From TrEMBL:
InterPro entries according to UniProt: AA-permease/SLC12A_dom
Top-rank taxon, per record: Bacteria
Subcellular location: Membrane
Pfam families according to UniProt: AA_permease
Name of this protein: Amino acid permease-associated region
Bilayer topology annotation: Multi-pass membrane protein
One Gene Ontology term, aspect cellular component: membrane
Chief subcellular location: membrane
UniProt keyword terms in alphabetical order: Membrane, Transmembrane, Transmembrane helix, Transport
Organism: Microseira wollei NIES-4236
MF term (GO), any: amino acid transmembrane transporter activity
């Protein structure tokens, strides 16, 4: 028999039952930031896995589905702001829980800092097309300030922002990829399908970056206080984000690799692969739109890392690991 353990304002001070399934799903999706892979980073994975890149993504997806099933054994029974930290405390004790809590906080913060640099780089490139060249420090400060304000102001505001920013980016990329595939006559890429030139070592090496691409899929578990029906919505968001992101990665990778073969260019040496392919099919404006979508995805990821990091830190403070003021929620 499942027992619901749900916190309310009287316990933690967080706003209860305010996020529906779409907004909870947006939290996990935002940290995964699926737009950034096809828009900028896919060349790194193709350089390692070659024609086996889609296979690397499939293996990563297959493995993470089982990881999600294990996480959901806890998420379907307990809901709190502590994410995996609270699960580990209950299962393995406080020492292992503290290690997990610090690992989560540092992972989210370092991911946020890395993505903030990507935001500054991407925004600098896009704004540079207008003849404006702000300093990187300025762009870093702008991105961090807006993300902090959205996260501080209201979890609903940040969740809705993540949902729309990431959703718009994914739609733009999906449309562009369909156009690219159509320009290739919806051809089948036999070298990819038959794994031509692929070795187990190359697939395994690519899996390192593939697993990083999926990182953050579990972050919806930090919304245990704020989610509506958390014992149902959070497990669905955890496994749903992994599956949807995996299918998105596999399909966009297949089309991009096929598109670059048709042009004769090398995807591993192209900084903006979708921007390049959009020019080749005469849809440069859509490539620019995808570029802005990637920028929005970087921002959504920054916002997405702030939310779970703050909540894990918040619950650890309420357990006496930090100053008590860090365990107080602002209204």
């Amino acid at each position: 028999m499942k027992q619901e353990v749900q916190s309310h304002r009287s316990v933690h001070g967080l706003k209860p039952n305010c996020l529906d399934f779409g907004e909870v799903l947006a939290q996990s999706f935002a940290v995964i930031a699926p737009t950034t892979i096809p828009a900028s980073n896919i060349g790194l994975i193709v350089a390692l896995s070659g024609n086996g890149t889609c296979l690397s993504f499939f293996i990563g997806l297959f493995g993470l589905v089982f990881v999600s099933i294990n996480i959901n054994q806890f998420a379907s029974r307990s809901a709190s702001p502590g994410s995996l930290y609270s699960y580990i405390v209950k299962g393995l004790g406080p020492t292992a829980g503290v290690i997990c809590g610090w690992s989560l906080v540092l992972a989210y913060l370092f991911t946020g800092m890395a993505v903030l640099c990507g935001f500054a780089n991407f925004s600098g490139t896009l704004i540079g097309h207008l003849g404006i060249h702000p300093s990187s420090i300025t762009l870093l400060a702008i991105g961090a300030s807006i993300a902090w304000y959205a996260a501080y102001k209201d979890i609903q505001l940040s969740a809705i922002a993540m949902l729309w920013l990431e959703g718009a980016s994914i739609v733009a990329i999906a449309i562009l990829c369909l156009i690219i595939w159509a320009s290739c006559g919806f051809a089948l890429d036999l070298p990819q399908l038959t794994l031509q030139g692929v070795t187990p070592g190359s697939v395994a090496t690519g899996l390192v970056l593939v697993m990083f691409a999926f990182s953050g899929f579990e972050s919806a578990t930090s919304l245990g206080d704020e989610a509506k029906k958390p014992l149902k919505t959070i497990p669905k968001a955890v496994i749903g984000s992994a599956i949807l992101a995996g299918l998105f990665f596999i399909s966009t990778t297949y089309i991009e690799v096929l598109g670059f073969k048709a042009t004769g260019a090398d995807i591993t040496h192209t900084e903006e692969p979708l921007g390049f392919l959009s020019q080749q099919v005469g849809m440069a404006w859509l490539g620019e739109l995808v570029g802005f979508g990637a920028l929005f995805s970087f921002f959504a990821c920054i916002l997405g890392t702030i939310n779970p990091a703050a909540r894990v830190f918040f619950l650890m403070a309420r357990h006496g690991l930090f100053h008590s003021k860090l365990g107080a929620a602002h209204l």
